[in-house]
């Protein structure tokens, strides 16, 4: 026997915990027992433990804190990762009806392409692609479309409605479960649209708030005289009242956190019995460096909004193997309005970055970038000896591609940052 | 997240919290230790863990900032 390379110990809220990042299990532990755990260095130590504290030994073994001596733990992560990323039972399609947007947010990494709109020909090709996927992938059980962009609702009728109707019909015909999701700024909803969407399994709308009315309207505005906060809040309320789940993404900086107390007042306009349909996820704007004070303030805000009856969590706790990014998966494609095909949606959609093209017959002609992406994981040496490999794995395939041929760590080789990841996971379950 | 999912998550959280409690460490008649640790729990027991499907879910900063044409 040997101890796992993925073990951690953490002190939180006056309690000791041990954690294994592969089994993803926490055990709360007495300080004396923690000392015993930390003293396990040799095979003999572990053997001794089985004699003087057999139930603890059994728990450690069962939950992956100690493993057989000849177990290759990295290989276990590799096998799991491959299994998840090559899952044939699910297909996730992301469609950008446009790369244009009615807002102009300072932090947005997307290039707004004025006048861009998926034309009828590309709508048809996208339907053919869906047809190919549903009719040829025999193991498929679920099919998902995410609407994205740009602001997807700019072209609801012309692009979203026909593709969604087609996908729903063919999925029903072949016994595949179809669901859909929207990443939208939440400004363009109409009552008619909401009624129509009730015909589908819509499992969420992601809508972003950038602070209270004043802050939000300085970032997300239609024009100099017209902000968007009031309309968006009204739409969030309306969606919840119509039993649609809304994920409110809160983009925070070190300066706008106090604003959210005011946002909470506005959120309380949603009927108590409908608040469960809204969840709030706090995301740090990536250009901002988060400090300990900010982390504590975010946790406080999460506690407060939960007390009001909403679900809330910090949005960016990595779990990159078991819940890898869609871009890492073989059964994923992002169709841009012009028929270019991408994997990652967190970069721009310039032609030079495309990984394939949607052909007239609805097949995707992938290029070399696709193969490179699908084989890029587990090549970064520092990751292979890291205690959070099963959580991080060097980020996603995009990150690995951008750091190709060099040793890198997404947490700058800082063990404290890694410990914070574990702490954030613990906070989710232990408060 | 649906309303039902939220309710079941509340129950799951309550259950997880109880599972993290443990009896004090003690010694039995055979001289073996017992107690001093809780059940093993995982956030996966919460049901709101989704596939990373939403835009901008990246947990790391972009390495090559892009420029907007607008």
Describe what you observe in this structure.
The complex is a heterodimer of chains A (431) and B (70). Chain A has helices spanning 31-38, 43-52, 54-62, 73-85, 120-136, 156-174, 191-197, 213-219, 229-241, 259-267, 292-307, 368-374, 381-384, 397-402, 415-430; strands at 2-3, 7-12, 15-20, 25-29, 66-67, 90-95, 142-147, 177-184, 202-209, 221-223, 226-227, 246-252, 278-284, 311-314, 332-335, 340-342, 356-358, 364-366. Chain A is an alpha/beta fold and 431 residues long. Chain A has an eleven-stranded mixed β-sheet. In chain A, 44% of the residues are buried. Chain B has a domain at 3-45. Chain B is 24% helix and 13% strand. Chain B has a two-stranded antiparallel ribbon with strand order 1-2. The radius of gyration of chain B is 22 Å and the shape is elongated. Chain B starts with a helix and ends in a 29-residue tail after the last strand. Classes of the chains: A alpha/beta (431), B alpha+beta (70). Chains A and B meet through strand 4, helix 3, strand 9, helix 14 and helix 15 of A and helix 1, strand 2 and strand 3 of B.
Main features:
heterodimer; A: 431 residues; alpha/beta; TIM Barrel; 3-stranded antiparallel sheet; 15 helices; 18 strands; globular; B: two-stranded antiparallel ribbon; elongated; disordered C terminus
């Amino acid at each position: 026997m040997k101890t796992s390379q993925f073990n951690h110990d953490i002190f939180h809220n006056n309690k000791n915990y041990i954690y294994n990042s592969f089994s993803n299990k926490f055990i709360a532990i007495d300080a004396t027992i923690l000392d015993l755990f930390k003293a396990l260095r040799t095979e003999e130590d572990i053997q001794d433990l089985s004699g003087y504290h057999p139930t603890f030994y059994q728990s450690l073994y069962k939950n992956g804190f100690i493993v057989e001596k000849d177990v290759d733990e990295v290989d276990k992560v590799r096998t799991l990762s491959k299994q998840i990323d090559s899952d044939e039972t699910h297909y996730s399609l992301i469609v950008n009806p446009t790369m244009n947007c009615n807002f102009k947010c300072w932090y947005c990494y997307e290039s707004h392409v004025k006048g861009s709109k998926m034309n009828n020909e590309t709508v048809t090709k996208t339907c053919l692609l869906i047809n190919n996927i549903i009719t040829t992938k025999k193991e498929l059980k679920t099919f998902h479309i995410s609407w994205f962009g740009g602001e997807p609702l700019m072209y609801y009728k012309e692009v979203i409605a026909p593709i969604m109707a087609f996908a729903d019909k063919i999925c029903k015909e072949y016994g595949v479960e179809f669901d859909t999701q929207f990443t939208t700024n939440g400004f363009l909803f109409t009552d008619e649209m909401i009624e129509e969407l009730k015909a589908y399994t819509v499992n969420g709308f992601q809508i972003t708030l950038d602070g209270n009315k004043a802050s939000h309207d300085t970032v997300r505005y239609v024009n100099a005289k017209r902000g968007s906060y009031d309309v968006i809040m009204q739409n969030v309320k309306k969606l919840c009242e119509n039993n649609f789940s809304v994920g409110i993404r809160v983009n925070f900086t070190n300066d706008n956190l106090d604003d959210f107390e005011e946002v909470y007042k506005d959120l309380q306009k949603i009927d108590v019995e409908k608040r469960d349909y809204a969840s709030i996820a706090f995301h740090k704007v990536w250009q901002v460096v988060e400090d300990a004070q900010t982390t504590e303030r975010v946790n406080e805000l999460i506690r407060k909004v939960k007390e009001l009856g909403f679900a809330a969590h910090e949005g960016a706790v990595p779990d990159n193997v078991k819940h890898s990014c869609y871009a890492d998966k073989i059964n994923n494609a992002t169709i841009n309005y012009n028929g270019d095909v991408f994997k990652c949606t967190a970069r721009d959609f310039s032609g030079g970055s495309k990984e394939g093209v949607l052909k007239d017959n609805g097949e995707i002609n992938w290029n070399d970038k696709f193969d490179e992406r699908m084989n890029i994981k587990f090549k970064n040496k520092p990751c292979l000896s890291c205690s959070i490999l099963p959580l991080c794995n060097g980020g996603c395939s995009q990150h690995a591609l951008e750091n190709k041929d060099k040793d890198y760590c997404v947490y700058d080789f800082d063990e404290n940052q890694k410990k914070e990841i574990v702490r954030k996971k613990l906070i989710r379950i232990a408060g | 997240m649906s309303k039902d999912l939220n309710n079941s998550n509340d129950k799951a959280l309550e259950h997880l919290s109880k599972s993290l409690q443990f009896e004090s460490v003690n010694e039995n008649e055979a001289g073996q230790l017992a107690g001093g640790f809780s059940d093993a729990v995982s956030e996966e027991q919460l049901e709101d863990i989704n596939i990373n499907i939403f835009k901008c879910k990246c947990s790391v900063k972009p390495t090559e900032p892009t420029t907007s044409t607008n």
